[in-house]
Amino acid sequence: MQLGQRSAGRFWASATMSSAPSSKQALDLLLLVQQLKLTKRTGWVQKSVKGPESIADHMYRMSIMAMVSCPPAVDRDRCIKMALVHDLAEAIVGDIPPDAGVSKEEKAIMEQDAMKEIKTMLGDASFEANEIEELFNEYECGETAEAMLVKDFDKLEMILQAHEYEQAQSMDLQEFFDSTEGRFSTPTGKALAGEVMARRAACKQGESGGS
């Protein structure tokens, strides 16, 4: 059993110790999540992509990746949940790019503070609040099989989106592919990334042949 699965069991066992979030608490979170639907991913904005995806768009396709691409040895449901919450803090802090002048340490503190705010919003003692916090922290630590796979899905969704923008808008987004080269850590992530790169290469070859 993976660490993530054991941790999830602890919270399930204690779920009856606290009531679920009230309707008001749940709606407060749902209204906050609207920011993820409205906030465009900074990397695409900086490259002047037309109609760039939102943070919520990114998380949604990652969740579908987890639904259809998890190997049997990995907790599929946990990966889906992790994909859904891994960028939840960005509803408060926004999508901070690497060149924003914010260190990794500062960004981590900002996001942890945001998650504490979200946990309080749902009720600190509720199972739901603790589950979201645990999934976020597990992803950030990146040590369980589930977290490593979801981190690969995060990078994979980005290069897939870059490939789509290149095709739809005749752009060169090579830097996004360069930033993930050699950084996929799971067999599933490597296989899917290889498929994206093969399709990108085929498209480029087709463009060359047609010119």
From TrEMBL:
Cellular compartments per GO CC: cytoplasm
Stretches assigned to the HD/PDEase domain: 51-168
Pfam families membership: HD_3 (PF13023)
InterPro entries in UniProt: HD/PDEase_dom, HD_domain, YfbR/HDDC2
Organism domain of life: Eukaryota
Catalysed reaction equations from the record: a 2'-deoxyribonucleoside 5'-phosphate + H2O = a 2'-deoxyribonucleoside + phosphate
Keywords carried by this UniProt record: Hydrolase, Metal-binding
Cofactor(s) in the UniProt record: Mn(2+); Co(2+)
Function: Catalyzes the dephosphorylation of the nucleoside 5'-monophosphates deoxyadenosine monophosphate (dAMP), deoxycytidine monophosphate (dCMP), deoxyguanosine monophosphate (dGMP) and deoxythymidine monophosphate (dTMP).
Family: Belongs to the HDDC2 family.
Assembly and interaction partners: Homodimer.
Protein name: 5'-deoxynucleotidase
Source organism: Tetraselmis chuii
